[in-house]
Amino acid sequence: MKLATWNINSIRARTDRLLGWLAREQPDILCLQETKVEDAGFPVDALRGAGYEVATFGQRSYNGVAIAAKTPITDVARGLGDDPADDEARLIAATVGDLRIVCVYVPNGQDLASEKYPYKLAWYGRLRRYLERTSSPDARLVVCGDMNVTADDRDVWSPEKWAGQIHCSEPERAALAGFAAFGLVDVFRTLHPDGGVYSWWDYRGVSFFKNQGLRIDHIYATAPVAERCVECRIDRDARKGHDASDHAPVIAVFA
Length: 255
Hints:
Number of strands: 14
Radius of gyration: 17 Å
Number of helices: 7
Distance between the termini: 7 Å
Helix content: 10-25%
Shape: globular
Largest sheet: 6 strands, mixed
Strand content: 25-35%
Strand order of the largest sheet: 3-4-2-1-14-13
């Protein structure tokens, strides 16, 4: 089973690019973030034409998450379902076969002085409590998406430059670790312990060509799923070319 996650950075702007990628990679399950479109505007028919059913949780111009799969999608849930609720479309969960999928777009946080930074840290706490309410560490569960945090300095092209910056601050990394302590394994890191491989590169300058990136897109799985992961890679080629997303897909294969 092949599962992928990709911050597409506007599904309407990149539908053709996505369809071409699906034809090449043929993932069984795809999680998308930053679709930036309300549900009515999502190109469902185009993805169905490519052989995928789709569940969406959209929002006009911002955020937005979706799950696409070659097999039926059931038990769809949208949002964290907590109190106080907010109107940001950042989480969608569904069951595909015997696997529960949670697709997330974690708040960016903007910078450490922004009011969006404590919101980001709190969101991670809400996500951990969501998992405690809805699942268990021995369930067949995958949580993936744009986590907007580097787990450690191996995920940063220049730890010195990024020290204490957004995506790399210690409180963010502690929040990510607290979420993962639910009982989740970073399957990419398990297979690639040395680091130096990234999933996001700034649009500005020549950061992509110099490979000056961050690994902020992750696939986490509970032990019963993670132990079956035989491959995990980042498709850097999908970041190439005109009008690409600033993120590359992360792809995992499970036996």
